[in-house]
From TrEMBL:
Residues 234-256 are annotated as: Disordered. Residues 12-183 form the SGNH hydrolase-type esterase domain. It holds the Pfam family Lipase_GDSL_2. Gene3D superfamilies: SGNH hydrolase. SUPFAM superfamilies: SGNH hydrolase (SSF52266). This is GDSL family lipase.
């Protein structure tokens, strides 16, 4: 392990997972694994610069069109690209098209940086995940191929039982909570060849059984507050990221 590795700049590209939902700060903004990783990298490199172009709700075509060219132009040492999951979780999806667009993004970003990191995205264990497994596994197999062809690092979060545990997820069941993001930070940190601070994949203690009434109450709240609005956006062609700018659109010195 090369613990003396340093990076002087980092650009994050993607959707809500990389934007940081739902690792909420007291002021209502989101932090997330990419911000946490930037903070740790900045502590090793004076003058470290960071940009996060990710925007919630973005499909892979939008990521390619809106984020990859600006990211490539920044010429950062490190670039992370995570996308495509919003596509495969939709009722209808052309997985081959998603893979083609992801390849286009990698072909644009890989030559622009010293280290490109891709990810097999985490999934919350449960019946919803089971429904989309064939699509997800096709996408993840292609990500492995891209990593091998372009010399990119692939972080396998999907295989982690710990990160897939419902206790690592926000009540919206779509985004990681603060602990989930913290574990992803450590996973990427170690994939970069840096000295581990903990076992990011350590099993959680046995879950406390939840009674029938509590489960039904939770399900009803989830449907009312999260599932209903999500379905509404799908039916009307809207996205939670419509009109939203990236939180760190320029590659500037990191300030935590």
């Amino acid at each position: 392990m090369q613990t003396n590795i340093t990076y002087s700049s980092f650009v994050a590209v993607g959707d809500s997972f990389t934007e940081g939902m739902s690792d909420a700060l007291p002021d209502g903004t989101y932090r997330g694994w990419a911000d946490l990783l930037a903070g740790r990298l900045a502590a090793r490199a004076p003058g470290f610069r960071y940009a996060n172009l990710a925007v919630r709700g973005k499909l892979i075509g939008q990521i390619v069109e809106e984020q990859t060219a600006p990211a490539a132009a920044m010429g950062a040492d490190l670039v992370t690209l995570v996308g495509g999951l919003n596509d495969v979780l939709r009722p209808k999806c052309d997985v081959d098209r998603v893979c083609g667009l992801l390849e286009e993004a990698v072909e644009r970003l890989a030559p622009s940086c010293e280290r490109l990191v891709l990810m097999r995205s985490p999934g919350r264990r449960g019946p919803v995940l089971e429904r989309f497994l064939p699509r997800m596994e096709r996408l993840f197999a292609f990500i492995d191929e891209l990593g091998a062809r372009h010399g990119a690092t692939v972080v396998d979060l999907y295989a982690s039982e710990a990160v897939g545990d419902p206790r690592m997820w926000h009540e919206d069941r779509l985004h990681l909570n603060a602990e989930g993001h913290r574990r992803v930070t450590e996973a990427v940190w170690q994939a970069l060849g840096l000295e581990p601070e903990e076992d990011w994949n350590a099993p959680l203690p046995p879950a406390v059984p939840v009674g029938w009434l509590a489960r039904r109450t939770s399900d009803a709240r989830f449907a009312r507050q999260h599932l209903g609005p999500w379905i509404g956006r799908r039916l009307t062609g809207r996205s939670s990221g419509d009109g939203r700018a990236p939180k760190r659109a320029e590659l500037l010195p990191y300030q935590g």
